[in-house]
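Design review, sub-item: ligand-bound model
Attendees: FS, YL, KQ
YL presented the inputs for the pyridoxal-5'-phosphate complex:
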Amino acid sequence: MKNFKPADKIQDLQYFGEFGGVNPSISDSSTYTFLTAKSMFDTFEGNADGCYLYSRHATPSNLYLGQALAAMENTEAANVTASGMGAITSVLLQICSSGDEIVCSRTIYGGTYAFLKYFISKFGISTRFVDINNLSAVEEAITSKTKLIYCESVSNPLLEVANLPALSEITRKHGLKLVVDNTFAPLVITPANCGADIVIHSLTKFINGSSDTVGGVICSTREFIDELRNVNNGATMLLGPTMDSLRAAGILKNLRTLHVRMKQHSYNAMYLAEKFEQDGLRVIYPGLKSHRSHDVMNAIINPQFGYGGMLTVDVGSLDKANELMELMQKENLGYLAVSLGFYKTLFSAPGTSTSSEIPLEEQQAMGLSDGMIRFSIGLDENIDKTYEKMKDCMKRVGILKETSEPALA
Ligand code: PLP
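KQ shared the predicted structure:
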């Protein structure tokens, strides 16, 4: 959908508090009273709109946040969860039963990979990992047992961009669901506009943006969200990954400034990507022409938000990566920490952290070398100053020569 304005969609939603507060009141209760026994029964049956039963099922605060995220992702409804993994595992277990298969991108968050490779097999569900950019390999992996294709819009940590319109064509053709984790690209990409059936986020990252809580969301049709909440067979109702109302209220407030933050994250990441590339380093950033899926990215982004705040740089070896990260932290350029979307730059070596669940030979096959540093670029006001200081650190650890050429090239 051209010219989609996801930030406007969020801004258009107004919720007032009980006493005219500018923020909605927080529901500080785990259970709710009913005036009649019949209305309690109807609520259990799912036939009493506007009534609340028990907070694992739904709370006003969680519903407000869910509505705002559904508006942002252009889906009919959404259900918030206690973490991104709570959202991912619930979706997969809701759709798949014993004997079913999943086709999944091989470059995904390590926790999702571990769940699909080692955990979900306990229920007789198996996964085929593929290069998601190789569309014929994706199609070849589909069998009569396949239920869904799973990928990240922009993948962790190699920043591969999934060709969502093409994947959606494949899922339509084979009667499958396309499930997309959009954690790396909120506002930047609207997967539902590209044919995704279910869109997931770890709210822990850019959407909340203050690294003070974990959270997740599932955005989809009204029908699928109701299925997840069903008291008899709904995964979020029965597995219980429930977000606390206090946290939902906090995330909703932070969501209000996401558009401003994403523009600044993207601006800063693009600035550094161009500079590091000019310095001769191997840089992976979807905004660069050299990026493998730059054209795919251009075809699907909401351009007003840029190319996102994630940037990967290969500095040659794990030792150099560690030395550089420790020095950058000492120089207050960011923190040596996993996760992303914080005001401060965060960096980690994915091979030994967020992707360590992926066996070494598979890391090598997908192009994840051990000298890679994944940066979540912060909201620095003077990104030119940050660049100069980072370059100085790179020279001090011998990654760049004094003349700026890469010492390891
Ligand atoms: N999806 C992606 C792309 C992630 O990077 C992460 C966590 O790092 C998750 C999902 C899991 O989210 P959470 O940590 O909120 O459970």
